[in-house]
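Example with several molecule types.
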Amino acid sequence: MLWKIMLGIYILIVTVAAFVYAPGAAGLGDLSRIIYFHVPLAWVGVLAYLVSMLNSIRYLKKPDRDFDFRAVFNAEVGLVFTILATVTGAIFARHTWGVYWNWDPRQTSIFILMLIYAAYFVLRSSISEEENRARLSAVYCIFAFISVPLLVFIIPRLYTTLHPDPIISSSGLEMNGQMLQVFFAALLGFTGIYAWIYSLQIRLYKISQRWEGQ
Amino acid sequence: MRRLLALIKKDLTDEFRTRYAINSLLLFAVIALVMVSFATGMAGLSASLHAALLWIILFFSAMSGMGRSFAKEQEKNTAPALRLAAPPEIIFWGKLCFNTILMLALAVLVLLMYIFLLNPSIGNLPLLVLLVLLGSVCLAGASTILAAIVSMAANQGTLLPILSLPVLLPFFLVVINATQTAFQGAGFSQAAGSLLFLVSYAVVIITVSLLLFRHVWQD
Amino acid sequence: MMSDLYIVLTVCMISWLGIFFYLLRLDRRIARWEKKVK
Amino acid sequence: MLEVSNLTKCYNGRPVLEDVCCCVSPGQSMVVAGPNGCGKSTFLRLVAGLARPTAGEIRWELDGQVLAKGEVADHLGFVSPELGLYDHLTAREHLSFFADLWGLEQSRVDELLNFVQLAQYETLVGQYSSGMRQRVKLACALVHNPEILILDEPCSNLDQEGIVLVDRIIQQQLARGLVLLATNDAGEVARYKEVLLSLDEKAAGTD
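Resulting structure tokens for the full complex:
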């Protein structure tokens, strides 16, 4: 319990630090502060998908409902975080590029991540038999994962992007020490939230399993 | 190898006698082409628009026909006998080859009709043809395993495009970009990067499909 | 400009606190259920 | 030989088969009997390796060697009403397709066509009567001379001549391996029940 309350206070401090302690980036001003939330959100979105994919692989190796459940709720969590990352990204885009959406490669990447999650749930809803549903959606989760590395690494190289590179400063966003501190602190904090949700879900699942057993 | 040929022969014979996939593919492609041609009229389209339109037509007509071969095995309950008679990898290769043949035929026809109806200015025809053919292989490669997944689910008609789009989007970004340069008359050396990407995309996607197919192909 | 920043900061803090207490409540409830099921 | 222990299969958490045990030796025929919905077909599908059991074990042994999961299909012929045919191929094309898949000579095709008395028909299977379709299914299952033959309601839709044919197939099969047969026909049960697996004590089709 203690670490959860500490996490709460920790995120509160990071939030304050993001607005007060870290200076605004040159050229972008106070708006640059959104990266302390936008990037961690996107990071958790990708991380959740990765965990979902790994659990799908485990399911195919050993068909255990546990793994299927983990794959599903990670996809759910990932979908929420990805949508939030897209929204925060669009706000940032509106103020720097003038439009909410312009099919920048980075936007396209996160959009595809959202599409995969959406397609994953559509697929699940259209298979009624439990075992088939778990197996086929696991296959899809792994198969669709191919396009993630392709998009994240290859496409931005083929096209010029306006998206600021998060850490290595090449396109306008120079990060100084204070900013980096807050940035990594935020990443850590959001990963903590993810871990918390993860443990809650697992406990909830175990309760429901035992409930059925009784 | 003989098993593979038997599978392809069986699918082709069946297809020639019913002409279900061929008809739906072709009709869909023709309708889409005529609509595009009507809508744009004689207005000269830019190369990027031509490239996008061509691939949109190819994508949706592919989606309307690709799913059939698996769906049919499932509907007619012929899948269990196949499961017993051949290992999943052979089945996958058979279906992949059949889909590729179908897709190549479709691509050639769509390309000819596209040039005929919309009269785009083509800078580098050999490159364009190569891109369309290579792209068809990629389309068939990605949609074969997805078609197998879809054949076991409900609402099959809409599911295949929904599942394929995320997987195919990186491929589309590259191929549309390259097709545009082909319309504009770029040389092969300029397109080498894209061609390499397409080949490696096809290889990766088929390899992963082969690894995963055994899990799809069971009841 | 400065006051805008504080408004956004307040909104962020309040929404985090909302999420935080929601999670905390869920955590407690799950703990209760765990005892009951055992 | 076949050894099944504590076989259980659930669909969506609801058991269709529970704790089924049986044992069949080579040269024996086993009859699976029971009312509709008791899981006969499911049992045969599980044994054939077409579906995965929820729990329990299925062990095939051939000439003293235990068959791995993937190998079972190579020694197995399966006939079931759940199995379909390609409506737009002829009987000959069906057989030569399966002969190709098993890597066998085309002479086997003629042999089998004569055996099931379909050699003179060159029309598409879609136009066949259900009895003729049943004969095509039997022939397809026999293409690779399997040691194990699994027949689910083999005599449905067959005329007198066809029933004699099935009997001949079963007798030939018993000389070479074993036969699993699911049926509700009292005469067939009496005739083939060297081993009888009755699934009726558990009424699974409750809902």
